[in-house]
Amino acid sequence: MRPLWRRRGPGRGGGGSAPDGRRATGRRGPRQRLAARVPDLLADRSFRRYWSGQTISMFGDQISSIALPLVGVLGLHASPAQMGFLVALEWVPSLLFGLHAGAWVDRRGHRRATMIGTDLGRFALLASIPVGYAFGVLTLWQLYGVAFGVGVLSVLFTVSDPTLFVSLVPEDRYVEGNSLIYGSRALSFVGGPSVGGALVQFLTAPLAVLADAVSFLGSAFFLTRIRPVEPPAAEPGKGLGAMLTKRLAAWLGVGRVYTISCLVFTAPLALVPLAAGPRPVILAMLMTAEFIAGFGVMTLDISIGSIFSAVIPNDLRSRVSGAFQAVNYGTRPLGALTGGLLGTLIGPRATLWVAAAGGTLGFLLLLPTSLPSFRMPETSRPQHQPATAADRGGQDLAEHPA
């Protein structure tokens, strides 16, 4: 992997001379000024390829999030109950297999190969939808199978990714690396559904799913182009926003940024049940809630991803990621059922108040822990050595976990 620092020539006015003997003027051309604005991590070829693959895949996921349900609705005339079952099948694998997949990947190793295999598998599954549609044999049961299969492979991809990330990114660049990844994610949330809707309109929903399938080929291609030195497998039985987040983490500490983000993410949700009055006022309140909460969840994701990268030992990364995925995604079907039940019993507005209050309670639970005082280690350790509790702020976090 190429070094992340750049050799600098003579300073401005420092007396350096050009190769032909002429005195350097110190002025930079357009290409030099553009290069100076590129984040240092993207100057590293391996990380740039990894980031490119992730970005392509995330955009494909957002296209599919629009196109796949529309295949059921427009192409197969699925009922609301059938659509609910289809959505549940996408998330159930996180609950069923998150913990087991993480432990299996940690013991097996070869995370990059696992990620390439899951990308190719997801391409094959999703590509079967337009093929079945073209031959007139597409059924709802095939759609169910594809949704569940893609969900299982996505679990394996997700639990493999954290170890690959720390294999490519130096410890002192974790926040910058996560900022780039989650910046792409935020951009995909904005642009992906719009592109998906346009593709459905002009190409039909099954053909729009093909765009997501091709995105997995792109991800697999870039993963084959990198050769990170992965940590050894675990022994059996051993247990705008993006740039601002980086600056906030350096100023306040990444633990405090994460804690504040938990409040910034959840508190604006109170505007949703409060929304009332003329239609423009309601729309303004809903848009404000969505914008502020969206910024909060992005800074939350970047900061907790950086904390995970710093404190989790390499041989436990996949299983911790699996456990996190099981809780984060596996509880969503339960939340959906609970929300539907409360909405029926006490009404939608009261249910939204319960959701907003529950989210804020999560922020309050963090305050008495050591997490708000955590800061990223300032000195780099060897790239694949597990993080130690002696790292700055890490000792308290390891002894008193949040």
Domain tally: 2
> Roughly what is the average pLDDT, rounded to an integer?
77
Shape: globular
CATH superfamily of the largest domain: MFS general substrate transporter like domains
Termini Cα gap:
35 Å
Task: Write down the CATH class of the largest domain.
Answer: Mainly Alpha
* Strand segment tally: 0
Query: Which strand-content bin applies to the residues?
Result: under 5%
Cα Rg: 23 Å
SSE map:
Elements lengths: L29 H8 L7 H31 L4 H29 L2 H24 L5 H29 L5 H30 L1 H20 L16 H12 L1 H13 L4 H4 L4 H33 L5 H12 L3 H15 L1 H19 L27 H6 L3
Helix pairs in contact: 2-6, 2-7, 3-5, 3-12, 4-5, 4-7, 5-12, 6-7, 6-8, 6-11, 8-9, 8-11, 9-11, 9-14, 13-14
Overall description:
It is a single chain. The chain has 402 residues and is mainly α. It has two domains: 43-224, MFS general substrate transporter like domains (Growth Hormone, Chain: A), CATH 1.20.1250.20; 241-399, no CATH class. It is built from 15 helices and no strands. Helix 3 (80-108) packs parallel to helix 5, helix 3 runs antiparallel to helix 12 and helix 6 runs antiparallel to helix 8 (241-252). It starts with 29 loop residues before the first helix and ends with a helix. Mean pLDDT is 77; it is low at 1-25 and 379-402.
Give descriptors for this structure:
mainly alpha
Write a brief caption for the model.
This protein is mainly alpha-helical and 402 residues long. It has helices spanning 30-37, 45-75, 80-108, 111-134, 140-168, 174-203, 205-224, 241-252, 254-266, 271-274, 279-311, 317-328, 332-346, 348-366, 394-399.
